[in-house]
Design brief:
The complex is a heterodimer. By secondary structure, chain A is of the alpha/beta class. Chain A contains nine helices and ten strands. Chain B starts with a strand and ends with a strand. A five-stranded mixed beta sheet of chain B has the order 2-1-5-3-4, with no helix packed on it. Classes of the chains: A alpha/beta, B mainly beta.
Chain lengths: 261, 66
């Protein structure tokens, strides 16, 4: 069965997996994982250049080229709407006018939970400034809807805290978000292993974004390959429509014609 | 002149244009972006942009992140 592409800000993606570029041992390992994952989009962070030292050190974007992949600059590390908006403007300049950004405004260093009120303020400013905003948020259905109404091109609720690998902790909220959504819903954060990605897709999510689950695996490239399959199989299972859950057994073999009758 | 570059005091004597500061800091290759006093200065304007005493300059690039 031919599945529809994942359309974000007018661009069609065949892969429903988005990966990160943090915590890898090298740019080369990151690229190998990216290739194994089949992802077409990869997140990057925006940070100050190290001045006076390693001025000509290799650059991530020399290894993972914006010509081959959609680069998704994030606002990780921003705790105010103002910092997040500035970071997005720097990213747009850095990437020659590229408008697609991942907005995240954090609220607390221990949980890295999103500060949703600052996120809403930043989303409003960025949409008004012409950005295509993919927004990281909590799994609150009302806030997710609000962010969609502001004009975000994708809403990305967490499955569990960033980097925790705890999986999809509140599938019922993800379902509520999906029920009301008319933009792609992408689970961002919380995935720990392949089955977590499948669960997100089986719920009907349009995609999954992950970093640590691949980068911190003992073999990141192998885990990237596993995640590719998990996202695809979860998607197919969702489209296929699962059987109902039953409390008691339901025989798979016909009861008629057994030899003891 | 005295500048604040990426949050640190920086004594700059090599000229007045933003391009000359970037040259002195050896930030010329690859992708980077510059902001002065909170406003983006597009690459096309680096040559002509005149820095003033106490300007706050931010120079950023893309690194690994999730």
């Amino acid at each position: 069965m031919q599945d529809q592409a994942l359309r974000i800000a007018g661009v069609d993606y065949r892969s429903r997996l988005i990966i990160g570029s943090g915590k890898y041992k090298s740019f080369e390992e990151n690229l190998a994982a990216l290739e194994a994952s089949g992802a077409e989009m990869i997140t990057v962070a925006i940070r100050r250049v190290n001045l006076g030292q390693n001025a000509d050190e290799p650059n991530l974007l020399d290894v993972i080229s914006p010509n081959s992949y959609t680069i998704l600059p994030n606002t990780a590390g921003c705790y105010t709407a103002e910092d997040a908006v500035r970071t997005c403007r720097l990213a747009r300049e850095l990437l020659d006018g590229h408008k697609l950004v991942k907005l995240e405004v954090l609220g607390d260093q221990k949980t890295l939970y999103p500060n949703v009120t600052e996120t809403v303020v930043a989303a409003e400013q960025l949409v008004a400034d012409g950005f295509d905003v993919m927004v990281y948020t909590s799994d609150d259905p009302l806030i997710a809807k609000r962010l969609e109404e502001i004009g975000c091109v994708a809403v990305m609720p967490l499955g569990a805290p960033i980097g925790s690998g705890l999986g999809i902790r509140n599938p019922y909220n993800i379902r509520l978000i999906l029920e009301n959504a008319s933009v792609p819903i992408i689970v961002d954060a919380g995935v720990g292993t392949a089955s977590d990605a499948s669960i997100a897709m089986e719920l009907g999510c349009h995609g999954v974004l992950m970093n640590t689950a691949i980068a911190e695996a003992k073999q990141p490239v192998l885990m990237a390959s596993a995640m590719k399959k998990a996202v695809e199989s979860g998607r197919e299972a969702f489209l296929a429509g699962r059987m109902p859950r039953r409390l008691y057994a339901s025989a798979s073999s016909p009861l008629d014609g057994t030899i003891n009758n | 002149m005295e500048l604040v570059v990426n949050g640190k005091q920086h004594q700059f004597e090599g000229g007045t244009s933003l391009a000359s500061l970037l040259q002195q800091l050896a930030v010329t290759e690859g992708r980077f972006a510059v902001e002065v006093n909170g406003e983006i200065v597009p690459k096309s304007q680096h040559q002509d942009y005149v820095l003033r005493d106490n300007d706050a300059v931010e120079i950023v690039r893309a690194i690994g992140g999730g």
